[in-house]
Design brief:
Elements: E1 7-10, H1 15-30, E2 35-39, H2 44-49, E3 54-56, H3 63-75, H4 80-109, E4 113-117, H5 121-129, E5 133-138, H6 154-158, H7 163-188, H8 195-200, E6 203-205, E7 221-223, H9 237-244, E8 251-255, H10 264-277, E9 280-284, H11 287-290, E10 300-303, H12 308-312, E11 317-322, H13 326-334, E12 339-341, H14 348-358, E13 361-363, H15 371-383, H16 385-399, H17 403-415
Parallel strand pairs: 1-2, 1-4, 2-3, 4-5, 5-6, 6-7, 8-9, 8-11, 9-10, 11-12, 12-13
Helix pairs in contact: 1-17, 3-4, 4-5, 4-7, 10-15, 13-16
Length: 416
């Protein structure tokens, strides 16, 4: 097959997966590279806002809704292994239809390079089978890409309830799902998932040395740091006015991400903690969970959605209650805002631990969480200057990271 000079980006239309890749694609367009982005129709608007050509990646009706629902269910699991297995099973389920759709896209586009989200294994396997140069974008550095493996990190064992036997059951389920996924992938491309294959591909991770523990990564890893869009909508006028009026007092921003579905007991604990802290709180809480919060009083403003990056950049915001996903963590620390992390799944427990270990915030376990824990943690972050000082130092470090331009540099090298 004769290749074009096009760089094809592939991601499911989940903002946390796709947006950083959209920014890399835009940067390559600015360098006069030919690019295309394959995703579902739900992501078309993001591409249009950044001037990136869209290629329909249609895997059947409801793909994005199924992936979102799977992550919501994963966030409800009682330990990390069960949540990981639930999320991975959704990728296993989508793999065959993704292979079918991407086979046609690769034939039509004939890309010189494929840049795939770590979640779109079908793109990795098909491109490798066809001999197309590849790069992977990931929100974290996998354990297999560290020279000194972390093994089963301690945060996976403690991130859950139900004791040892409950976690052991989760381990067994996760291994079974991984084995099924590996079998599917090897049918498409026999080396898929093997350590030599994984380490042969450039991996661009949305993290930074100031966040990671000391140690070396394998040579294929590039740390990009934050990739923050300048084309997102501003704050709603009413939200901005509310924040403006509390600039001197300060505000806590609270948002647990668009893929987390907090359970009733957690919403109640947060509500009690916010009220008891005596601080102003801007809380992004979806409507289905709003009824669990009860009467919040005059200091708490609840909205179903808040433009998070814009809010973090407002001078009134002094701390951030977050699930500690990679994107939210980068947005907060790049703005110098200390964090109170309450992780649920996937890479969130790891990044919550890193925020606490670096001194840029605190971490709470959602299991057995009470309002007093939340209030005490928010009071510490407000009263102890070291948290804000560390977050400010990290913002300065992150400002020097290559971001989307660094990702474009990796792709440029593959094109030479």
């Amino acid at each position: 097959m004769v290749r074009s000079d096009t760089v094809l980006f592939v991601s499911y239309a989940l903002r946390s997966h796709a947006m950083s890749m959209v920014l890399m694609a835009r940067e390559l367009r600015r360098r006069s590279r030919s690019v295309a982005f394959a995703t579902q129709e739900e992501g078309k608007g993001w591409l249009e806002a950044h001037g990136v050509p869209w290629v329909p990646f249609e895997t059947g009706p409801g793909t994005v809704a199924r992936l979102v629902e799977a992550r919501a269910r994963a966030s409800e699991q009682e330990n990390w292994f069960e949540s990981q297995a639930t999320a991975m099973q959704s990728l296993v389920d989508e793999y065959p239809s993704s292979c079918d759709a991407l086979g046609g896209i690769l034939r039509d586009v004939r890309p010189a390079v494929v840049v795939a989200s770590v979640a779109t294994s079908a793109a990795v396997d098909l491109a490798a089978r066809e001999g197309i140069r590849l790069a992977i974008r990931s929100p974290y550095v996998p354990d297999t890409m560290r020279r000194y493996s972390l093994g089963w990190p301690h945060w996976t064992w403690r991130a859950g309830a139900h004791g040892f036997w409950g976690r052991l059951g989760g381990v067994r389920r996760l291994r079974a799902v991984r084995d099924r996924f590996a079998t599917l992938r090897r049918r498409v491309f026999p080396p898929a998932g093997s350590l030599p294959f994984e380490r042969s591909l450039p991996l661009m991770a949305a993290t930074a040395p100031c966040i990671e523990p000391p140690g070396e990564f394998t040579p294929n890893v590039t740390l990009l740091g934050p990739m923050l869009s300048d084309a997102l909508p501003p704050l709603a006028a009413a939200t901005r006015e509310w924040l403006d009026a509390r600039r001197d007092e300060g505000v806590v921003l609270a948002a647990l991400g668009t893929l987390v579905r907090p359970q009733e007991r957690l919403v109640r604990a947060l509500a009690e903690g916010f009220v008891a802290s005596g601080q102003n709180v801007l809380w992004a809480l979806p409507e289905p969970q709003r009824r669990h919060a009860g009467d919040l009083g005059p200091r708490i403003r609840v909205e179903p959605f808040v433009e998070q990056l814009a809010a973090l950049g407002h001078p009134a915001v002094r701390s951030f209650v977050s699930h500690a996903g990679a994107g939210s963590m980068m947005e907060s620390l790049s703005r110098g805002v200390p964090m109170l992390c309450i992780p649920f799944m996937l890479d969130q427990p790891y990044y919550a631990d890193r925020v606490a270990a670096t001194g840029a915030g605190l971490r709470l376990d959602r299991h057995g969480l009470h309002g007093a824990h939340v209030a005490d943690a928010l009071t510490r972050i407000r009263r102890e200057p070291r948290f804000a000082a560390t977050a400010s130092d990290m913002a300065a470090s992150l400002a020097g990271m290559p971001g989307a331009a660094g990702g474009a540099d990796v792709v440029d090298r593959l094109l030479r």
